[in-house]
Amino acid sequence: MGDIEVLRDDVSLDDPTLVEGLPGVGLVGKLATDHLAETFEMVHYANVHCEGLPPVATYEGDDRELVTPVRLYADQERELLALRSDVPVTPPAALEFAECLSAWDGGGGTHVYLSGIGRKREEGTTPAMYGVGTAGGSDSLAAVGIESPEESGLVSGPTGALLNHAVRTDRTAVGLIVEATPQFPDPEAAAHLLQEGIGPLVGTTVPVAELTDRAAEIRSAKRRLARQMQEADETSSQARPLGMYQ
Segment Disordered: which positions (predicted)? Predict the structure, then answer.
């Protein structure tokens, strides 16, 4: 099953909310969690060594230090964890991760899973967003005014596997689904997730100006990963209307 290697014994978390950021449609989850970790200066809290994850090492510009491709970042003050992934993850690997994480945290805390639903929209328009939940997660959504879906649908890819595990194990989880442009990274959709979804759920305000002001630059920098996600549907977290399967 693998394990999660905690690096910071000086960080104490009682009942944290974990925000998942696996790559998917519009890269909305990855963009949102990367921005969350950087904006709140979250510390590199743990390395994820769960079975099924790609056996690779990653590095960043101007930094010689190698890191694992999937990592947890923590904000003790906000009781917040952010899962950051630098690589596509298959649904079987995500299921292994969910089981690995549940064994580590004992099923406590709320998990927030992020997914884009591929839809074109006019420039300057606000993407639609709605939420789904399990084991009390729906109550959390209602408490902060996040709308229910207007149509039936399903979430596939690794985020779908994580949500499936939450349903099976009756753990408290929330799924936030936002309209995202499928052809390229969508910083505006990620900003909407942060401002209207994640922020209210964790009881904080998330500044998003950097995401929206640097949208063109971010699209260019992340375009290759977005193309990889398009070419490999299995590894791409996405929501789809259920009518497509009927």
Answer: 226-246
DSSP the chain: ---EEE--TT---SS-EEEEE--BGGGHHHHHHHHHHHHTT-EEEEEE--TTS----B--TT----B-SEEEEEETTTTEEEEEESS---HHHHHHHHHHHHHHHTT-SEEEEEEEEE----TTPPPPEEEEEETTHHHHHHHTTPPPPSS-EEEEHHHHHHHHHHHHHT--EEEEEEEE-TTS--HHHHHHHIIIIIHHHHTS----HHHHHTHHHHHHHHHHHHHHHHH-GGG-BEEEEGGGG-
What are 168-213's pLDDT values in tens digits? 999 999 999 999 988 788 899 999 999 999 999 999 999 999 888 8
- Report yes or no: 51 and 100 within 8 Å, Cβ to Cβ: yes
Which tens digit of pLDDT belongs to each residue from 65-124?
Answer: 899 999 999 999 999 999 999 888 888 888 888 888 888 888 788 999 999 998 887 777
Give the CATH number, domain containing residue 125: 3.40.50.10900
More confident residue, 27 or 227: 27
pTM of the complete model:
0.88
Domains in the chain: how many in total?
A: 1
Domain assignment of residue 27, given as a range: 4-245
